[in-house]
Backbone:
């Protein structure tokens, strides 16, 4: 653990980053910019797993394992979402959420 | 000393996260996101999760950011500023986020965490053994499911990105 830093301060940092991500997800109007806010949210969740493992249960390894799972799922999600966005751009020529009103092809 | 470094990293991460969600140039926004991800990797190194910090640096800072930059260059005109939502909507979203953060922080600071006194470094060999053992506290089944998921995501991304061209040729 970090000497001189309690668990409360690190959890405060991860909470603030999580809600900044939520603010960005609600206010952005571009699909790629919304995905970037999701990355912020996922990262703060993974940080929480690691910190709680380190400070409360130092013998366990579950925090590291679940963080690796979160990173793997986030990578898969990003690759698929960007493929869908690129395909959508070819059909609609726009990424603004107001102008995307068709799911048919 | 470590306390000062932790505060510097935290303040930089929060500032760059705010800039990342509020900047109107999408390329600058992605670079600020890169700084936030590197800061989180720095926190992993500070709590001695070295393997996880390395994974964070290679997968996020190395892989996902490059994927984003490539897609942005493919689909956006970089100099066009992003649209902003109406002022009252931004105000409402900010109020909701601040309220949620305040509630969560009150819940965290009023809870009495029993911090462990011993500190133990988790090496890469323990993580590897936990991944590959199928007894008690073994994670081989989720490990295999994740590998199937990654394969499916790879195939799915290729199929989705190619659908249009196949359709045109018919």
Residues:
């Amino acid at each position: 653990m970090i000497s001189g830093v309690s668990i409360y301060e690190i959890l405060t940092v991860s909470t603030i980053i999580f809600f900044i991500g939520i603010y960005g997800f609600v206010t952005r109007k571009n699909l790629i910019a919304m995905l970037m806010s999701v990355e912020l949210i996922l990262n703060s969740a993974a940080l929480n797993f690691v910190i709680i493992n380190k400070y409360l249960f130092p013998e366990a390894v579950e925090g590291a394992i679940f963080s690796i799972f979160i990173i793997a799922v986030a990578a898969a999600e990003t690759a698929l979402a960007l493929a869908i966005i690129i395909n959508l751009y070819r059909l609609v020529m726009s990424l603004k959420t107001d102008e995307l009103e068709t799911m048919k092809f | 000393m470590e306390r000062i470094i932790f505060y510097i990293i935290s303040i930089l991460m929060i500032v760059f996260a705010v800039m990342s969600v509020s900047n109107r140039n999408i390329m600058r926004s992605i670079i600020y996101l890169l700084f936030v991800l590197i800061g989180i990797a720095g926190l992993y190194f500070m709590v001695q999760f070295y393997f996880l910090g390395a994974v964070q640096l290679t997968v996020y800072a190395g892989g996902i950011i490059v994927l984003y930059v490539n897609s942005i260059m493919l689909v956006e005109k970089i100099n066009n500023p992003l649209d902003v939502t109406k002022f009252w909507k931004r105000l409402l979203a900010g109020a909701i986020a601040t309220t949620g953060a305040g509630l969560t922080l009150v819940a965290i600071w009023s809870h009495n965490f029993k911090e462990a006194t011993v500190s133990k470094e988790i090496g890469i060999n323990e993580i590897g053994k936990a991944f590959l053992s199928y007894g008690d506290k073994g994670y081989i089944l989720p490990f295999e499911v994740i590998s199937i998921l990654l394969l499916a995501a790879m195939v799915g991304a290729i199929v989705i990105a190619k659908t249009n061209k196949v359709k045109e040729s018919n």
